[in-house]
Amino acid sequence: MIKTIEWKNGKIRMIDQSKLPLKEEFFECSDYECVVDAIKSMKIRGAPAIGVAAAMGIALGAKNSSASNVDGLLGELEVICKELSKARPTAVNLFWAIERMKKIICLSKWSRTDDLKRDLEDEAIKIAEEDVEASKKMGRIGASLLKNGDNVLTHCNAGSLATVAYGTALAPIYHSLKEGKKIHVYVDETRPKLQGARLTIWELNKENVPTTLITDNMAGYLMSQGKIDKVFVGADRIATNGDVVNKIGTYSLAVLAKEHNIPFYVVAPISTIDFNVLSGNEIPIEERDGGEVTHIGGVQITSNGVSVVNPAFDVTPNLLITAIVTEKGILYPSLKEKINNLRS
């Protein structure tokens, strides 16, 4: 199983997802600015993985600080947290991880910079370890929703590459295969960045999972032909009413699944739930550069000067969701009530 990100010898080691599937290349970040760039450029992506990267970025920034006293280090950390929080606007795990690191920073016990640096590093590593455990739990829990012979449709990449390891929406598939079930996965290509074609296919092939790649606009046809039994997707942010923000195109799949009476499951850790947001309408949707639409692999595919809209995510209303799988169990409607019970 691929390890997407890890703290190694005082640096952060990540796989460069922008170069997959043609090149399997790792890179190291030795300063927090590198982490900010990696998140912005999508060298690392996937809500849980971005959260871990942010936590490690803060720890790395602290480690490299030459501040002579705690007050000086705290001032630097404030800047680092602000820069990381601006890296991408939609995935809530980024902000969740930053806030968790801030709780360490805001403790009043610090008298030595070395103590604060050590505890930030320990917390970042702990967040990464917890992410792996959450993925494993979601895999075990979500596998109960899959039966032998199922054909599963997934969108974007919600596997190991979106987390530290194992993944969210793909974790139940991996666990089901270990249980001896035969599962076939249909993978949406996921325009415009092609995370399905580039990343999910690459990852599933490495794990010897039977797969079929389709273009995004083929999903409805396959559903109408009875070739899709279930849909499993991840999430970048979940509102308290159960609305889900995920990669653009997820909403369309949910509508199609509803029309064809196909269960539509979202798999995400508790850290993806934004308890400060009442509905999906309140969640900011990242608008990315139009060049991602007008070009594929650097090759222009349309006319010069064409107007482009390129939202990276969309909102799937809770009424279209069969259930949300978390590391604490499966949440069935009413989702708002079940999500609010998780606050404690």
Description:
The structure is a single chain. With 344 residues, the protein is of the alpha/beta class. It has two domains: 5-136, Up-down Bundle (Four Helix Bundle (Hemerythrin (Met), subunit A)); 137-341, 3-Layer(aba) Sandwich (Rossmann fold). The protein contains eleven helices and 15 strands. The strands form four sheets. A seven-stranded mixed β-sheet has the order 6-5-4-7-10-14-15, with helices on both faces. A hairpin with a 2-residue loop joins strand 11 and strand 12. Helix 2 packs antiparallel against helix 3 (70-85). The longest helix is centred in the middle third of the chain and has 31 residues, at 113-143. It is globular and about 65 Å long. The two termini are 33 Å apart.
C-alpha geometry:
globular
Second CATH tier, the architecture of the largest domain: 3-Layer(aba) Sandwich
CATH level 3 topology of the largest domain: Rossmann fold
What is the CATH C-level name of the largest domain? Alpha Beta
> Largest sheet at a glance?
7 strands, mixed
Q: How are strands sequenced across the largest beta sheet?
A: 6-5-4-7-10-14-15
Q: What is the H/E string?
A: EEEHHHHHEHEHEHEEEHEHEEEEEH
List the main descriptive attributes of the protein structure presented here.
single chain, 344 residues, alpha/beta, Four Helix Bundle (Hemerythrin (Met), subunit A), Rossmann fold, 2 domains, seven-stranded mixed β-sheet, three-stranded antiparallel β-sheet, 15 strands, 39% helix
